[in-house]
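The freezer alarm interrupted the setup, so I double-checked each line after restarting. Inputs confirmed:
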Amino acid sequence: MTLPEVQSPVHQDAERPLEVVTARHPLRWLAAACVLVVLAMVASALVTNPAWEWDVVGQYLFAPSVVRSVLLTLELTVLGIGLGFALGTVLALMRLSANRLLSSVAWGYVWLFRSVPLILQLLFWYNLALLYPRLSVGVPFGPAFFDFGTMDLIGPLTAAVLGLALHQAAYAAEIVRGGLLSVDHGQREAAAALGLPPARRLFRIILPQAMRTIVPNAGNEIIGLVKGTSVVYIMALPELFYQVQVIYNRNGRVMALLLVAAIWYLILTTILSIVQHYVERFYGRGRA
Amino acid sequence: MSSMVELRGVHKSFGSLHVLRGVDLDVRQGQVLVIVGPSGSGKSTLLRTINHLEKVDRGSVRVDGDLLGYRQVGDRLHELPEREVLRQRTKIGFVFQAFNLFPHLTVRQNLMEAPLSAQRRPRTEVEPLAERLLARVGLADKADAYPRTLSGGQQQRVAIARALALEPKLLLFDEPTSALDPELVGEVLDVIKDLARGGTTMIVITHEIGFAREVADSVAFMDAGLIVELGPPAQLLDNPTHERTRAFLSKVL
Ligand SMILES: Nc1ncnc2c1ncn2[C@@H]1O[C@H](COP(=O)(O)OP(=O)(O)O)[C@@H](O)[C@H]1O
Ligand SMILES: [Mg+2]
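Predicted 3D structure, all chains:
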């Protein structure tokens, strides 16, 4: 018995491969067109309304006092993140320690410093002199070796850095701890079985792998802190946000100067996002 | 012949779970011991006490004359500082079921890490050693690859080379082929056989009975935290004296 030959509905030419015609997406095109119109409206609102005073924006964007304030914002961010993550890493290691006292203290620190709003902590450090006019280092309840006037030791800048770093450390501790826990247990075992010294196990084997989890979260924190530094304006430190307020209180160009600040924050976070991309790629090596 | 491994009355519990119930074991230099036994019988735990990844609760473990993890003063054992334990471990190579290669380091860096930082040997000496070992496991061309880009069999061969880089006196294998696709088991067993023929002292946990028959000097059957029976492969595998051994072998053969 022979089967009837099935007639192919399309004539297939063996010489020519079939061509693929991509489907059209008319709704997608419509949505894109709508978005384009909205973007154009926003652009026109920004450009044509003279109240934005773009000429004033241009005039102040690179004014020396503004640039100095950007540098202070950067300084606060770098110190806050650097010290915060250094302390946070120590806290994370304490938290994971088998010693109950160490892990409880680390837990308590995170609990306290995450619970109190940053602005309160800043005012607290700023006003520490009211509580302890003098600070001394020595035996608890015993004699002191060094003794300082609190006012001399903790000026507004120190208070700001202290407040930002201690606050940041609480968040950093949780991020670093999560990163350390994300590393497969077999990695610790292999490193121990090879006889690697403890510091080497941590810095060469565990932390670099933990960085894959730490970096994206740390990136969020750093970008958050760039903008978060603006709260130190309450201590009259001339960082970016404080500085533009000083200027617009003098000349009344409020919107233009807020725009100057916004543009600078945008520039800083864009640079950081680019850096983050490369750091993530570095720590992702050997994967995928 | 001298004893390379000597366990006396080793006990180990996890909480209320008594996993090792008084294990005695001797492995002489150059010998290959294969351990078989049902899952959960304490094989891995036993192997891990032999390089002090697991501390024993009672009893003693000696490797190449070192009392592992302790110093004996009179009839008391004093725990050694970690630095000393790490030094003892560099005499012992361990190969894991799950390979546990360092994924962020290249194959070459995986091999060089321990000789450089645990044994503090100079780089000029360690680099050619790594090349030699990779050639020995047939992966000379993979030195700059990252572990994830290799097959399971290749990864396990790198892990063996990494253990060999310490130039250990004893090699421990915990089910080295259990995580591998069947067609990759052979290439890893071939490397282990080659080492066995070269006179390396080793203890191998495996379910590969054919391998045990071919390379083991003795085979131990472990059940419920004890070595039930130990003997040359022909005797233990073909003529076991204990009913439990017989029951187990009838399931895996
Ligand atoms: N770190 C641990 N904590 C608690 N229980 C464990 C631990 N390691 C092993 N065990 C238990 O000890 C028993 C023996 O385990 P193991 O030595 O891995 O057996 P095997 O390798 O023979 O399968 C199992 O019941 C296992 O669940
Ligand atoms: Mg096991």
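Quick read of the result. Residues 29-53+82-252 of chain B form a domain with the Rossmann fold fold (CATH 3.40.50.300).
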